[in-house]
């Protein structure tokens, strides 16, 4: 298992690859159904998957020079 630098989640390289692909190609803000499907594909709980997306969004927003929290500007 690879250590995830974004938090205390311990994810494999394959899990990170699936999460990153979904983040970059599908959506940065998955709805409940999409979140459930991504979680199932990764073998993670929906809560852990949602946590990863929140952390990844904050990292992305910071890299874009935006506030870490979603405000009035949509990504």
């Amino acid at each position: 298992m690879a250590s995830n630098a974004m938090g205390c989640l311990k994810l494999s390289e394959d899990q990170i690859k699936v999460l990153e692909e979904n983040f970059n190609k599908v959506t940065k803000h998955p709805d409940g159904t999409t979140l459930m499907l991504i979680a199932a594909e990764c073998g993670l709980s929906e809560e852990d998957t949602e946590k990863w997306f929140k952390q990844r969004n904050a990292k992305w927003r910071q890299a874009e020079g935006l506030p870490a929290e979603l405000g009035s500007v949509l990504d």
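The longest strand covers residues 2-3. The chain has a mean pLDDT of 85.
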